[in-house]
Design goal:
Largest sheet: 6 strands, mixed
Bound molecules: D-arabinohydroxamic acid, zinc ion
Number of strands: 9
Shape: globular
Helix content: 40-55%
Length: 444
């Protein structure tokens, strides 16, 4: 923690020094007019280095787990769901899943771009990626686009995407009970500095019984007794993964039905294994709550829906474990106000992201206004949730624009009171909501 606290200070100092170098004394000069304020805010957002605290990306060394390129963009599960809202009845789910990626992408391009204007956020996102890469979407030539991607070197392309998105690093989702992921850690496959790990423990928290065999195969004598009885062994197993992959946090996605405390395995796993380990290791616990899991299994990853969750359960959990740092986001727009109020009540609760079905301009705008009004800059306004590398480009380009619009209004509101801001303070604030507050929370 001391090292981290120093690192945070250093990052903030570097930011100020860069501003002084770039703007000289102007960086510290009060901004007198609304127009100058507007310009300074938009510049700060455009230039901010962002930390993407939740994605589903993987290192190039982890083989086909890293998805990238136009066909992966077009077959993103958000677009698969949209395809079946318009596809002809004779396109069965089975027929679609039997196709190869190219054929699937051709269908998405046909039905969602050529025969229906790309107005949804996921469709617009594909076009933003192509445009920011310097490819002209207007010629609608999927073949030419494919040939461009085929010429890219994966590792160089990853760096290019991170630079275009303006990220310092992105946090992955690493599941210790998924064999196709574990094998790459067993092989010591390298991880670039742009990517950090997160220990994903949904399965262990929600389906511990089904995880026993693989946990046992990894040397954990959890036996078949109670979780309380195996807690020490389970903390040893989970702690071993923390030692191996050095995660930024432990994470779990919880269903809309999740409640705490309840006389169930999930509560016992949280109370006796996850939280004690989080305190022992000083690791935050990230909870993403509100999925209505697999309402249409035929859609695969696209088959999940959303429902309001129980914010009072979040409050009870955070209050019961005051020494655990909880990062929380909820999936339903309905929960956001109550969650933002909860964020005002507990210093060990940090809110993040406009997650999944909230990652749309109308809701990002509303959530960001609500959070700034209730929490100021003590929040991480967004994460990308990118599953396909190239998505970093559009998810962050779209978010920067929306957050800048919100911040312009908020700084103008404060300006009207007579308070004055400097460019350095605005850059500080923008960094805070795009990763700085997260780093401060981790270092606390
Ligand atoms: O559980 C999660 O981390 C979710 O983000 C799911 O992966 C979801 O399918 C998704 O990709 N949302 O964007
Ligand atoms: Zn996710």
């Amino acid at each position: 923690p001391e090292g981290r606290a120093l690192a945070v200070t250093r990052a903030a100092r570097i930011l100020q020094e860069n501003l002084r170098r770039d703007m000289g004394a102007d960086a510290m000069a009060s901004i007198a007019t609304l127009d100058a304020l507007n310009t300074a805010v938009r510049r700060a957002v455009d230039e901010a280095t962002i930390t993407d605290i939740h994605t589903h990306l993987f290192p190039p060394s982890h083989g086909d787990l890293l998805l990238w390129g136009v066909d992966e963009l077009l077959t993103y599960h958000y677009l698969v769901a949209e395809l079946f809202t318009v596809a002809p009845a004779d396109l069965t789910y089975e027929a679609f899943w039997a196709m190869d990626k190219i054929a699937q992408a051709d269908l998405v391009w046909k039905h969602l771009f050529l025969e229906a204007s790309p107005l949804s956020e996921a469709r617009r996102g594909v076009l933003t990626v192509l445009q920011r890469l310097g490819l002209d979407p207007a010629d609608r030539d999927l073949g030419r686009i494919r040939r461009w991607f085929a010429r890219q070197d994966e590792e160089a392309y990853l760096e290019k995407v991170f630079d275009l998105a303006g990220l310092d690093y992105a946090v992955m989702t690493n599941n210790p009970v998924k064999c196709n992921e574990v094998k790459h850690f067993d092989a010591g496959a390298p991880i670039p500095a742009r990517l950090r790990t997160a220990l994903r423990i949904d399965d262990v928290v929600l389906n511990f019984a089904s995880c026993r065999p693989i946990i046992a195969s990894q040397g954990c004598a959890a036996g078949d007794g109670t979780i309380e009885g195996a807690a020490a062994a389970l903390r040893g197993w989970m702690g071993g993964w923390i030692d191996r992959i050095d995660p930024v946090y432990m994470a779990a996605s919880l269903p809309c039905s999740w409640a705490y405390p309840v006389d169930d395995a999930a509560t016992r796993m949280i109370d006796h294994v996850v939280c004690p380990l989080a305190v022992e290791r000083g690791l935050p616990v990230a909870l993403m709550i509100g999925v209505n899991r697999q309402v249409n299994p035929a859609l695969g990853d696209a088959g999940d829906a959303v429902a309001p969750c129980d914010v009072n359960s979040i409050i009870r959990l955070v209050a019961a474990h005051p020494d655990v740092k909880f990062l929380v986001t909820t999936l339903s727009r309905v929960d956001q106000h109550a969650l933002a109020v909860a964020g005002r009540k507990f210093r060990n609760l940090h809110l993040f992201g406009c997650w999944w079905f909230c990652n749309n301009p109308s809701i990002i705008n509303e959530m960001t206004r609500q959070r700034l009004e209730l929490l100021g800059t003590g929040v991480t306004v967004q994460h990308s949730d990118a599953r396909v590398l190239d998505q970093l480009i559009y998810k962050w380009s779209h978010t920067r624009r929306i957050v800048a619009d919100v911040l312009v209004d908020k700084y103008a509101d404060a300006h009207h009171t007579g308070w004055r801001f400097t460019p350095a303070e605005i850059a500080r604030d923008v960094r805070q909501i795009f990763g700085g507050a997260f780093e401060d929370f981790r270092a606390r």
